[in-house]
Amino acid sequence: MPGFDEQLTLKSQRLVLRPFGPRDAAQVRAIIAGGAEFLPPGAPGHPSMIDQWLAHGVHELRRSGQGIHLAMVADGVIVGAISLFKTLWGAGSTEIGYGVHPAHRGRGYATEAVRALTSWALREGRLRRVELRANLDNAASIRVAEKAGFTREGLLRGGGYANDGPHDLVVFGLLAGDPPMPYTGFHTGLRLESERLLLRPFAAADAADVYAAIDGDPEIGRWMPWAAGYTLERSRQWCTRYAHLEVATGVQFALQPRRGGRLVGSVGVHRADWERGDAEIGYWISPWARRRGYATEATRAVSEHLFERGFHRVHMVIAEGNLASQAVARKAGFTREGVMRRALPVPGGMTDAVLFSLLRGE
User: Fold this and answer.
1) 139 and 271 belong to one structural domain
2) Would you give the DSSP letter of residue 203?
3) If 0-12 CB within 10 Å is exposed, 13-18 middle and 19+ buried, where does residue 42 land?
4) How many domains, in total, are found in the chain?
5) In which domain, by residue range, is 256 found?
6) Residues 351 and 212 in one domain
7) What's the half-sphere exposure (Cβ side, CA atoms, 13 Å) at 106?
8) Are 84 and 94 in contact (CB under 8 A)?
């Protein structure tokens, strides 16, 4: 009978999916002590049983040939667990389930892990169908299934049971040969690279540089209404919270020189329309990093990433008087389309804006 490799290890953009083992004892002990419930079924409820479970219990499913439990690891930290179970090798089908540590939810780990393990099952695993079931009232799990490309197939009335009683289950399926569906969202940990820049998420350590770049700078203050009265506390909130909120329709990057040095600015995607395949790009550059081509380089890097993700059009909306930013758009290959009347807020009111666009393949 076919089975699962005891050393099965998969890598995705941010995660490593690997078997649990004795090296995980300290982390599992902390997870259990903290009361987080996301480990695979059969996980011990008492610390005294952890070593036995890691050495034997967590591997019983694999030994039976019916599935496998894998740790979901990000930067060495167990952030969740994911499993294949009810595997029928003759029929070529299996079911997938997962759990994410409460402290690491909302970052897209579940979708990323489900995509990786499903891809393995339908390719290297030579299975033809992966099924995912979610409680009808669990909107988050339903969204994970949709983002991972599964098709909603039907409803099992009272098909699930939990401590609070029966639950209706939504059944999702993904078949080998199904066309890939675009992932409609951005990873919060998304990183890009260009020739001289690392485009990465903002961090608390960036707050001082962001504040220094914006506070009192006449160029940023001329075009950015949010820059008025900027404080170090606002900078901290931006770097640790607000820059990480828009993962469905946008994403923000801090621009860091690959060879080290101060923050050189920011570039972001705004109002990404996944259905239409169109997104807007905006940026600002720190005063100490201007006239070095960083804005053009960052704009190109983000545009290329969007085209790789399936977008066919990227645009920029630039104040009519902002000639420097218009020059950046042209250098990045964008085409001027026209003037949008009173379309852009600036300090003191609204201004006409020039619309630039770049199409995939240009």
Assistant:
1) no
2) -
3) exposed
4) 2
5) 192-359
6) yes
7) 6
8) yes
Tell me the per-residue pLDDT of 242-289, one tens digit each, with 9 for 90 and over.
998 877 789 999 999 999 899 999 999 999 998 889 999 999 999 999
In sequence order, which residues have a C-beta less than 8 Å from that of residue 317 and are 6 or more positions away?
280, 282, 340, 343, 344, 353, 354, 355, 356
Please write the tens of the pLDDT for every residue from 30-71: 999 999 899 999 999 888 899 999 999 999 999 999 999 999
Residues 196 and 283 in one domain: yes
* Per-residue DSSP letter, 37: -
Residue 334 located in a structural domain:
yes
The tokens for 243 are 């820059």
- Domain check: are 26 and 132 in the same one? yes
pTM (2 d.p.): 0.56
Asked if residues 78 and 31 have their Cβ atoms less than 8 Å apart, the reply is yes
Query: Measuring CA to CA, which residue among 90, 133, 91, 128 is closest to residue 114?
Result: 133
- List the structure tokens of 14: 């941010």
249 in the same domain as 151: no
Cβ neighbors of 137 (< 8 A, separation 6 or more) are: 167, 168
Long-range contacts, stretch 47-53, CB < 8 angstroms, 24+ apart = 50/25, 51/22, 51/25, 53/28
Out of 142, 175, 208, a domain closes at: 175
